[in-house]
C-alpha cells in the first residue's frame, strides 16, 4: 500500500508506442481529480501558468473509486498527484506547493518566510474550516446527506463566521498576503468556487463585498480562466428545503 510521500515504481508500467511514451516523458506528472474539482483548480492553474504538463485523470469518489486508486490514495480521496519520477503526493496543499516550487523564480510563495507562513495559514483555513462549513450547508440541499432545516441554518451561520475572516482581511488590501498575488489567493479562490456555484448568491454577496470582489478578481485572471473559463457565480442559491431530485455527483 502507498502512503503519503513516496516513490511509485513506474518501471512495470505497460509498454506504450513511441509517441505516447515521449509524451509521458515530457509530462511533469498526472493529477487524479474529478472535473472542476475545487481542490484541483489552483494546482492546475499554477501548472499551466509555469508551463508544466499535467495529465488529468478523472476520478469521482462520490460515484466510484477504481481498485488501482486505493494504492495511490488509501483514503480514496482526490486530488492525488503521481509525478513522472514516481513521486506520489496526496492532499491539495502539498501538491500545490510541489508544483509551485518547480518554478525557481516564482513569487507565488511570498517574499519572506513570514509571507510563506501566512500563505499556508490561509490555504489551511480554507481547505478545512471554510470547505467543511460550506459542505455542511450544501450537502443536505443536494441530497448527499439527509436534510435537516436547523442543521442547514447552523451551517449558514458557521460559513458566514468563517468568510467574515476573509472580509475583514480584504477590506483594506487587494490580496490575502502581502501586496501581490500568491498561492493563497489561487488556492483559496478555487476552493470556494462550489460555494459561489451553489449558495453564495446575489443577496448573500451583499454582506461580503470585499470577499466577493477578491474572488472575482482572482477567478477572472488568465491563469484561472485557462482551467475554468466560466466563473461560478449563482444568482439565486439553493433554498433551505429538501432536495427535489436524487443526488448526482458533479
From TrEMBL:
**Domain GST C-terminal as annotated: residue spans:** 112-243
Name the UniProt key words of this record, in alphabetical order: Transferase
- Cross-referenced Gene3D superfamilies: 1.20.1050.10, Glutaredoxin
Q: Which SUPFAM superfamilies match?
A: GST C-terminal domain-like (SSF47616), Thioredoxin-like (SSF52833)
PROSITE patterns reported for this sequence: GST_CTER (PS50405), GST_NTER (PS50404)
For this chain, the family text in UniProt reads: Belongs to the GST superfamily.
Q: What is this protein called?
A: Glutathione S-transferase
- What organism is recorded for this protein? Aspergillus bertholletiae
Q: What is the lineage of its organism?
A: Eukaryota, Fungi, Dikarya, Ascomycota, Pezizomycotina
Amino acid at each position: 500500500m502507498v502512503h503519503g510521500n513516496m516513490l511509485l515504481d513506474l518501471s512495470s508500467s505497460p509498454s506504450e508506442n513511441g509517441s505516447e511514451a515521449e509524451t509521458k516523458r515530457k509530462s511533469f506528472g498526472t493529477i487524479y481529480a474529478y472535473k472542476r474539482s475545487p481542490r484541483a483548480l489552483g494546482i492546475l492553474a499554477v501548472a499551466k501558468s509555469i508551463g508544466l504538463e499535467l495529465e488529468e485523470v478523472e476520478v469521482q469518489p462520490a460515484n466510484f473509486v477504481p481498485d488501482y486508486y486505493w494504492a495511490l490514495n488509501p483514503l480514496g480521496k482526490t486530488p492525488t498527484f503521481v509525478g513522472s519520477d514516481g513521486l506520489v503526493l496526496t492532499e491539495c496543499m502539498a501538491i500545490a506547493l510541489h508544483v509551485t516550487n518547480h518554478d525557481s523564480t516564482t513569487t507565488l510563495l511570498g517574499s519572506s518566510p513570514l509571507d510563506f507562513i501566512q500563505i499556508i495559514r490561509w490555504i489551511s483555513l480554507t481547505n478545512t474550516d471554510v470547505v467543511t462549513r460550506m459542505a455542511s450547508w450544501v450537502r443536505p440541499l443536494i441530497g448527499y446527506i439527509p436534510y435537516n432545516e436547523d442543521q442547514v441554518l447552523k451551517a449558514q451561520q458557521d460559513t458566514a463566521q468563517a468568510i467574515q475572516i476573509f472580509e475583514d482581511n480584504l477590506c483594506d488590501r487587494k490580496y490575502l498576503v502581502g501586496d501581490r498575488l500568491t498561492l493563497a489567493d489561487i488556492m483559496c479562490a478555487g476552493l470556494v468556487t462550489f460555494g459561489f456555484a451553489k449558495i453564495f448568491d446575489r443577496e448573500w454577496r451583499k454582506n461580503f463585498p470585499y470577499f466577493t470582489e477578491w474572488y472575482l478578481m482572482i477567478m477572472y485572471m488568465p491563469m484561472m480562466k485557462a482551467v475554468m473559463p466560466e466563473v461560478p457565480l449563482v444568482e439565486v442559491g439553493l433554498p433551505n428545503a429538501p432536495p427535489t431530485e436524487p443526488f448526482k455527483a458533479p
